[in-house]
Design a protein that fits this description.
Layout: E1 4-6, E2 25-29, E3 31-34, E4 37-40, E5 44-49, E6 58-62, E7 68-73, E8 78-82, E9 87-89, E10 103-105, E11 127-129, E12 134-139, E13 142-147, E14 154-156, E15 165-166, E16 176-179, E17 185-188, E18 196-199, E19 217-220, E20 227-233, E21 236-241, E22 244-252, E23 256-264, E24 274-277, E25 280-284, E26 289-292, E27 298-300, H1 305-309, E28 321-325, E29 330-335, E30 345-350, E31 355-359, E32 365-367, E33 376-378, E34 383-387, E35 399-402, E36 405-406, E37 414-420, E38 429-436, E39 444-450, E40 455-461, E41 463-470, E42 481-487
Antiparallel strand pairs: 1-42, 2-35, 3-4, 5-34, 6-7, 7-8, 8-9, 10-11, 12-13, 13-14, 14-15, 16-17, 17-18, 18-19, 20-21, 21-22, 22-23, 24-25, 25-26, 26-27, 28-29, 29-30, 30-31, 32-33, 33-34, 35-41, 36-41, 37-40, 37-42, 38-39, 38-41
Length: 491
């Protein structure tokens, strides 16, 4: 009988029933697909500790002297480090301390009097207090920053002996900031108005009062939501609220910037949910993912949406953040699973090949390679790690497991006797097979099988799931394996 190719498309499919994901990968951890071949995500190495809590915002930049810096914002501090890992706390002495975790005030005083029945558990509709996050950007060589708890626009001028200071004349009680391509500093949610965008004069972040002799200005977006995030993209800036999205394009003249709604019902789930690459801006919404590359916002079909949104801690949604990994054409989103108050999972999207992956990893802030040779991501204890380097996974399993694969047409019981592996280096991975006779029937496991050429196997069923797991620390590759199977019986 001809060999049966286990030709499973790239990426994870985790929507609907188990059988709905037939002939697709259904579960994974720390793996990616490149040009149809599965390989492990590279590991990480410890770099430096910047604090003892979880950072909620990070940035790297290079100054005009070619010195490299990176910064991280915590709920109670702002910290910078040099390329040689010399770390300095640059928090203003009067920085407003924020919250490490989000909180929903559903207890006494957390709602309206008479809004329920005595003895009945109160719905999750109280006032929502976000976990503190930071907007970080560079204004030339200098760092500009805004904490959601503090609300001031801060600036640090590279002097490690002097802390960051509030920018003179800038609005206060802001939700975030953005430096545009034209070198205007945007205050988002300016002055306590959650729909207001206010900007300084070009190249002058201390001049905020509009006049005929400058280009300072402001606008209140026509939206029912509040501004969540601003991000630069090609030729314009994108302002994303929790309900819609607006483009900001420099037009000069009296109005300076033109604003246009480019998407509705596409709000961001958090203030760090969007990332930009050459192909556009991508972000996570309340129940889906969106992209903007000019024109109008587009829904991104998500093949793991059920898995992500049906097991996510929405009370801690303000901690969700995204980061690019442009070396592999990926956007990663990190979030808290339903049973966790801190980030413990990720979902990633390959925006060029159009497939998804999932896994478990606790990282709370970070940035892509560019200024530094490797991506740098931060853990809950404030440690910075160089990522996509080496093969250290701190004991985490690196694997991918398929949904059910029917042997033959699935009508008859088939008996598999031999596996022909397809690896870059034979023996780097092992394979385990899990068989069933019916979709919801009991499952039996066979293996793991260490790869030989060929590999003797013995299992019987109408459908089989395959689990591929790293057998040793190596940068392995797995292509299309093949099974030799014949008609069999239940016994």
């Amino acid at each position: 009988m001809p060999l049966i190719p286990l030709q499973i498309p790239a990426g994870v499919y985790r929507n609907g029933t188990d059988f709905q994901g037939s002939n697709r990968w259904r579960d994974a951890n720390l793996v990616r697909w490149v040009e149809g071949t599965m390989r492990p995500v590279r590991g990480w190495e410890d770099r430096v500790s910047l604090g003892s809590a979880a950072p909620r915002g990070a940035l790297s930049w290079q100054d005009t002297s070619s010195d490299r810096w990176f910064a991280a914002g915590f709920h109670d501090s702002l910290v910078v480090s040099t390329e040689s890992n010399i770390t300095t706390d640059i928090s203003p002495a009067d920085l407003t301390v924020g919250s490490l975790d989000a909180a929903v005030e559903t207890g006494f005083g957390g709602g309206f009097y008479g809004g329920g029945f005595y003895g009945t558990e109160r719905a999750d509709t109280g006032n929502y207090a976000e976990a503190t996050t930071w907007s970080l950007d560079n204004f030339g060589s200098w760092l500009v920053a805004c904490s959601t708890a503090d609300g001031r626009l801060l600036e640090w001028q590279l002097n490690t002996g002097t802390p960051a200071a509030a920018i003179a004349n800038a609005p206060t009680d802001n939700l975030g900031l953005l430096v545009t391509e034209e070198r205007f500093l945007f205050a988002l949610g300016a002055g306590g108005n959650m729909r207001r965008v206010q900007w300084s004069d070009r190249e002058s972040n201390t001049l905020w009062t509009p006049a005929a002799t400058n280009e300072a200005g402001d606008i209140e977006l026509q939206t029912s939501g509040q501004i969540m995030q601003g991000i630069r993209t090609r030729g314009q800036s994108l302002i994303i609220t929790d309900t819609d999205a607006h483009s900001a394009t420099y037009i000069g003249g009296q109005f300076v910037y033109g604003f246009q709604r480019v998407g509705s019902s596409c709000g961001a789930i958090s203030r760090k949910a969007a990332s930009a690459v050459d192909e556009g801006v991508f972000w996570m919404g309340q129940r889906g993912f969106f992209g903007y590359a000019g024109g109008a916002v587009q829904d991104i079909p998500c093949e793991v949406g059920d898995y992500v949104f049906n097991d996510i801690n929405t009370a801690q949604a303000s901690k969700i953040w995204s980061v690019t990994n442009q070396q592999y054409n990926e956007i990663w989103w990190f979030y808290c699973s339903g049973g966790s108050n801190e980030i413990d999972r990720y979902v990633s999207y390959n925006y060029k090949e159009g497939h998804w992956s999932i896994g478990q990893l606790s990282r709370t802030a970070g940035f892509d390679r560019g200024v530094f040779r490797r991506p740098m991501w931060f853990a809950t204890g404030g440690n910075a790690y160089n990522h996509d380097t080496g093969l250290n996974y701190e004991g985490a399993d690196v694997f991918a497991e398929s949904g059910p694969i029917s042997l033959g047409s699935g009508d008859n019981v088939m008996a598999a006797t031999m596996l022909i592996p397809d690896e870059l280096t034979q023996g780097d991975v092992s394979a385990t097979f899990k068989t069933r006779f019916y979709s919801n029937g009991p499952e039996r496991s066979y293996g793991p099988y260490t790869m030989a050429n060929p590999t003797s196997v013995r299992f019987t069923g109408r459908q089989v799931r395959m689990r591929v797991e790293g057998e040793r620390l190596a940068d392995w590759r797995v292509g299309v394996m093949r099974l030799d199977a014949v008609a069999g019986s239940k016994r």
